[in-house]
Amino acid sequence: MFLTLDKLMAAPSAGWNIIISRINLWAFLVVLIFAEIPVYSQTSNSDTLLQKGIDLYNSGQYEKAIEHFELSLSGAQQKNDRYSLAAIYNNLGNAYSQTGKIVQALENYQKSVLIAEEIKDTTRLARVLNNMGALHESLKDFPQALAHYNRAEDLARTRKDSSILADCANNKGIIFEQQQKYKEALAAYSTALKIYEKKGLTDRIALTLNNIGIVHKFLGNYSEAIASYNRSAALAEEIGDQYFVAANYINMGNVYRLQNQMAKAVNLHQKALELGKEISAANIIFESYGSLAEDYAVSGNFKKAYELHRKYKEVTDSFINEERTRQLAEMQTRFETAQKEQQIDLLSKENTIHKLTISRRNNIILFIAGAFILTVLLGFLFYNRYKLQQRAKLQQAIIKQQDLATKAIIEAEENERKRIASDLHDGVGQMMSAVRMNLSAMEQHLTFRSDEQRAKYEKVVALVDESCREVRAVSHNMMPNALLKSGLASAVREFIEKIDHSVLKVDLYSEGLNERIDSNIETVLYRVIQECVNNVIKHSGANHLDISLVRDEHGISATIEDNGKGFDITDAGKFEGIGMKNIRSRVEYLKGTVEFDSRPGNGTLIAIHVPIK
Predict the structure, then answer these.
(1) Residue 599 — φ and ψ, nearest 5°?
(2) Helix axis angle, 302-319 relative to 282-299, nearest 10°?
(3) Within 10 A of 487 (CB to CB), how many other CB atoms are there?
(4) Given this model, what pLDDT does residue 10 score?
(5) For 308, which DSSP code?
(6) Cβ of 432: how many Cβ atoms within 10 Å?
(7) Which uninterrupted H or E stretch holds 258?
(8) What whole-number distance in Å separates Cα of residue 129 and Cα of residue 147?
(9) Which of 136, 263, 356, 449 is the most buried (most CB within 10 A)?
(10) Do residues 107 and 330 touch, judged by C-beta distance below 8 A?
(11) Distance (Å) of CA 192 to CA 62, 166, 167, 580
(12) Burial class (CB in 10 A: 0-12, 13-18, 19+), 576
């Protein structure tokens, strides 16, 4: 599993820097950190504000840096300085990504790209595209990332810009690494490192050394990995980059843990956590919690590991959520639409110039005036028809893109559920089972001096058993085996069987679901029914619930009816919660319909219909 987050770095005379590093985390987790910030020289009055923002950013004061970038943006907007605007928007994107605000980061990068395309500044365009590629790679959207990298590389090759070409090599090295093509990854990093060393770019050298250390870690070359991390950390200290110092602490700590040097591992991860809090770096904080939890788990201190893992989950839940993912998809659609509108505007201007040229010519050639008028009329009619066709095609493309974005979000969410469920079942679950087995084996060799000692021992065993059951319950709830093996009806039946029937009696009726349907439809419908049942348990106060699943030639119909207290469906506020929005968005994704029928005191009926091709 790979998660990717942005990191920025400004160098006084380096131009626009895109450098790549990652924080190696637990055995199943790697964090990629893509850094870029331009040092852009302007002649407007916003010079001082922009430079101050860059200085604040380099010192780790990201929120204050955003304030100065916003102030410099106002000045550039008043003067309509397009070159300055492109640079400032990119700076804002970098600063927002550093604070974990990925939606705002992508929005500002897109604005920078649109302006760079408008003013035909190919050098700046290549740099921003490379930075956007890094951001998409952080979101595990590798096709988008590669598309941005390739376009940036083509532009850089045309401009003969070796720095950007090195950045592209570094970025692609990360993808090779994630594909476990370590030989290709080392070759790409070495290419980038030679260029950076030749140009004396200390910040990029540090980050590339970190990348090389990560590859050596995966190859089991721990001494080479530690050496690369130490060189990288020394350079980070030299340029005053506290964020990257913390990243190196996490990387080195993880390698020490693999070597069973737990004291060194815990010390480094604790220092990284303190630095992360000091500079308000969200990803450093939650990855430090995660690494510390793993350290204590390996050391056998499961209580401390559990406490740290809870903190890790709290921070990650606030950092990565469904709402942000939805906003990213919507923003991507708006960005692509804006690009198309910009192209249409350019075509319109070119047509206007062409018409003026024809008009001047007709003033000279009077004897063909009649033929010209007829030509213009026919051309006008043809142009209107062409515009209507193009508008229809554009609308279809937007709808298709929205569908693809929604599908990608849901698939990413389900894949994440599967990964977490697998990690809980195969990792923590297996470890807890081993603990239970060892405790049982120890009982034969223990001599209890009193009944009180035996009771304490049995209480410990009971707690371990309860923990095992809880881990299994959580993993099965996130991705039930019945859904994978037997289908929707079996998964729903397994889910409701876990409900305490003394509190809520649930009756399930299913028909026509003997044959499997598309796994994507099964998964989405299961999540919708699961959300509905959870809403009944939390809010309705009902003691009886009927669920019906019927498949016919038109599709699948599902009804969920309870005898609870109901609610006023005319109150729009009742539908503003995340649960209700999830139900609507998932059913709309399947091109289905969902209806609510409820009144206070008369229970609630939810009717869902999904067509099946």
Answers:
(1) -140, 150
(2) 160
(3) 19
(4) 28
(5) H
(6) 21
(7) helix 242-258
(8) 9
(9) 136
(10) no
(11) 28, 4, 7, 49
(12) exposed
DSSP string spanning 404-452?
Answer: HHHHHHHHHHHHHHHHHHHHIIIIIHHHHHHHHHHHHHHHTT---SSHH
Alpha-carbon gap, residue 145 to 150, rounded angstroms: 9
Alpha helices in 259-321 (DSSP H): 262-279, 282-299, 302-319
Residues 6+ apart with CB under 8 A from 328: 102, 103, 106, 139
Q: What are phi and psi of 35, to 5 degrees?
A: -120, 135
pLDDT averaged per 10 residues in sequence order, the chain, 613 residues: 28 27 33 35 62 82 88 88 89 83 89 91 88 80 83 87 86 84 91 91 91 92 92 90 90 93 93 90 87 90 87 72 55 66 66 65 72 81 82 76 66 67 61 69 76 79 73 62 69 83 88 82 85 87 92 90 88 76 83 90 91 82
Residue 367 DSSP code: G
- Give me the long-range contacts of 337-343 (CB less than 8 A, separation at least 24): 337/394, 337/398, 338/110, 338/114, 339/114, 339/117, 340/394, 340/397, 342/114, 342/117, 342/118
The CA radius of gyration of the chain, in Å to the nearest whole number, is 29
Strand partners, 598: 604
Which residues 6+ apart lie within 8 Å of 48 measured at CB?
Answer: none
Question: Tokens 């599902």 appear where?
Answer: 558
Spacing of C-alpha 301 from chain mean position = 32
* Region label for 559, one of left (φ > 0), alpha (ψ between -120 and 50) or beta (otherwise): beta
What 219-222 contacts at long range (C-beta under 8 Å, 24+ apart), as own/partner pairs, is 219/182, 222/255, 222/258, 222/259
85 and 73 Cβ atoms separated by less than 8 Å: yes
Distance (Å, whole) CA 242 – CA 62: 12
- The residue type found at 16 is W
The count of other CB atoms within 10 Å of the CB of residue 468 is 18
What is the rounded CA–CA span in Å between residue 372 and residue 117? Answer: 36
Q: DSSP secondary-structure letter at 16?
A: B
Q: Provide the pLDDT for residue 13.
A: 25
Q: Answer for the pair 91, 69: CB distance below 8 angstroms, yes or no.
A: yes
Residue 547's nearest CA partner among 559, 565, 536, 556 is 559
Give the pLDDT confidence score for residue 440 in this predicted structure. 72
Would you mind telling me the total number of residues written for the chain in this entry? 613
Return left, alpha or beta for 120; rule: phi > 0 is left, psi -120 to 50 is alpha, else beta. Answer: left
Q: Which two tokens stand for residue 291?
A: 């690494």
Strand partners, 246: none
